[in-house]
Amino acid sequence: MTAFREIASGLQFPEGPIWCSDGSVLLVEIRRGTLTRVQPDGRKDVVAECGGGPNGAAVGPDGAIYVTNNGGFEWHEVGGLVLPGEQPASYRGGSIQRVEVSTGTVETLYTKCGDVPLKGPNDLVFDATGGFWFSDLGKMRKRDRDRTGIYYARPDGSQIREMAFPVDGGPNGIGLSPEGDRVYVAETYTGRVWYWELSAPGEIRRNPVSQNGGYLLADLAQGEALDSLAVDSDGNVCVATILRGGITIFSPKGEHRHVATDDLLTTNICFGGKDLRTAFITLSSTGRLVSCAWERPGLRLAYNL
């Protein structure tokens, strides 16, 4: 069984972890609406007040942190666990934000793509050219939920494009293959992982027999739901798995196996430490950040702190 070390507790639904070279971890607290730095000894400092529901975070080419903001949730506490719910009354839409770490300044870059409002941006990943892919999970209401897809944008606010629609299973985690020739997306509601072949950075080579141009990599069959993800150095897609609780590791051919945690709402993973052999995992319903030794190095991201 995997041995986990608790780094911090008392976080308000943590997500979007980023390991930094000084040993700290930047993450978002969705319920609190903040970008927060967690020190190796567990101390927590608010870096920026993002408002709404900051969900995913990534380092951009300028050293700023880019945040997918889902616009917020209703929140419920059940048996000592914190659970996100439907679209709240305070919801004003989703956005992509840029955070200057040294000052905590928050700038809104995108709230729509053309005439289509962003509903619930969830996760993002930068490629080597400085552009970024992001998913929009949408929002859920009592009787319906949004149809959404995945997007590609530039970090200076100059361009945003819808790249695949519809991704009806709830596009959540997103990541790139080591060669940059695939973009992977995990669906929350179906437990499926999709990939799109890329002909160039920010350019999809569509599957002609698929409605959204993608290819199905794997389909979990036990009622699991999928959240955010990270890719390792061998190209395996490591997806946080909710309801079952843990990380499901998918090979580039679709074989998969599971590493269990003790939180049913395990929401994200990133790699750091010496040789990127340490996994940092957010256990959201219990408000914890934990780490463990990982079986192989993580994939080094395009930009790091």
State the helicity in percent bands: under 10%
Strand/helix succession = EEEEEEEEEEEEEEEEEEEEEEEEEEEEE
Q: Helical region count?
A: 0
Gyration radius, to the nearest Å? Answer: 17 Å
Largest sheet: 5 strands, antiparallel
* Corresponding CATH superfamily: TolB, C-terminal domain
Q: Which geometry do the CA atoms define?
A: globular
Total domain count: 1
The count of DSSP E runs of length 2 or more, i.e. the number of strands, is 29
Query: What's the overall average pLDDT, rounded?
Result: 97
- Overall structural class, as computed from helix and strand content, comes to mainly beta
Can you offer a commentary on this structure?
- This protein is an all-beta fold and about 300 residues long.
- It is built from no helices and 29 strands.
- It has one domain (about 5-295): Neuraminidase (6 Propeller).
- It has strands at about 5-10, 15-20, 25-30, 35-40, 45-50, 55-60, 65-70, 75-80, 80-85, 95-100, 105-110, 110-115, 115, 120-125, 130-135, 150-155, 160-165, 170-175, 180-185, 190-200, 205, 215-220, 225-230, 235-240, 245-250, 255-260, 265-270, 280-285, 290-295.
- β24 (about 235-240) and β25 (about 245-250) form a beta hairpin.
List the helices and strands and how they pair.
Blueprint: E1 5-8, E2 14-19, E3 25-29, E4 34-38, E5 44-49, E6 54-59, E7 65-69, E8 75-78, E9 81-84, E10 95-100, E11 105-110, E12 112-113, E13 116-117, E14 121-126, E15 132-136, E16 150-153, E17 160-164, E18 171-176, E19 182-187, E20 192-200, E21 203-205, E22 215-219, E23 225-231, E24 237-242, E25 246-250, E26 256-260, E27 266-272, E28 278-283, E29 288-293
Antiparallel strand pairs: 1-29, 2-3, 3-4, 4-5, 6-7, 7-10, 8-9, 10-11, 12-13, 14-15, 15-16, 16-17, 18-19, 19-20, 20-21, 20-22, 23-24, 24-25, 25-26, 27-28, 28-29
